[in-house]
Write a structure and sequence with these properties.
The protein is an alpha/beta fold and 252 residues long. Helix content is 21%, strand content 31%. It contains four helices and twelve strands; from the N terminus they run E-E-E-E-H-E-H-E-E-E-H-E-E-E-E-H. The chain is globular.
């Protein structure tokens, strides 16, 4: 397996970015030496939001949200398509599904359910996936340690496996960059990243996930297990929190 590095120029300065962490040619379903770009996301515009009055919002959050960014039905349809893309790309190979807790757990659960359904009704001969979970920490208090601390599983078990890291959102991408580099030390057959959301922000280090559900503006979003101080994980839609919500749950 190998990394593909591209370069972008922003305002005259070049920045190394990882796009397509491992080429699709490394996966069994692709002919030897073949490769293609990553699976591109749905682009969500800044003005493409939904009123809270149009969909069901829990009463305890009605005063805490500015608008709905991605309705739950659209999320589920997109996750189902991502599951189909995974099966097409990985073919009959077993995927080592590595969920980053806590935010990624709802995306992970739905992705696995759709993956099972697709696998069940097609002519595959292997067990579709192996499930595992990790927690990743890159800060002590409010200071970055410069290293990631991974807990929850024995990483030695990654050797020779096709690892898919499942994450809720890629913001700056710094933690994911360090996580992937750490996972590589354990000699997996491949490492790829699936993220439900990818934020368009100037703070990004330039990491691109291989599979992305939605590219979203630089808003603080909650719901579908994305939280603010452990609140909003029970919200089905992905929404934009307002200032009232931040104040209300600041000390939750």
């Amino acid at each position: 397996w190998h990394k593909s590095i591209q370069r972008r120029v922003h305002g005259g300065s070049s920045q190394a970015i990882m796009s397509n962490l491992f080429a699709l040619g490394d996966l069994p379903s692709q002919p030897a030496g073949s490769a293609r770009s990553r699976r591109e996301p749905i682009i969500v515009g800044e003005d493409k939001t939904y009123s809270l009055e149009n969909l069901c919002i829990p009463s305890h959050y009605e005063d805490s949200l500015a608008s709905i960014l991605i309705p739950n039905g659209l999320i589920l349809d997109r996750v189902e398509k991502m599951a189909r893309d995974l099966r097409q790309d990985y073919g009959d190979a077993q995927i080592y599904m590595l969920c980053v807790l806590k935010g990624g757990q709802q995306f992970y659960a739905d992705l696995i359910n759709f993956l099972k359904r697709h696998h069940r009704y097609n002519n595959y001969t292997t067990v579709p996936y192996e499930a595992d979970f990790i927690r990743v920490k890159s800060y002590e208090g409010d200071h970055s340690t410069g290293e990631v601390k991974i807990s929850g599983t024995d990483l030695a078990g990654l050797r020779g496996k096709h690892v898919l890291v499942v994450e809720d959102i890629i913001d700056t991408g710094l933690t994911m960059t360090k996580l992937v580099a750490e996972l590589e030390k354990y000699a997996p057959a491949s490492v790829r990243v699936a993220s439900l959301l990818e934020k368009r922000t100037d703070r990004s280090c330039g990491l691109y996930a291989d599979y992305v559900g939605f590219s979203v503006p630089d808003f603080f979003v909650v719901g579908y297990c994305l939280d603010y101080n452990e609140v909003f994980r029970d919200l089905d839609h992905i929404c934009i929190i307002n200032e009232r919500g931040k104040e209300k749950f600041a000390n939750h």
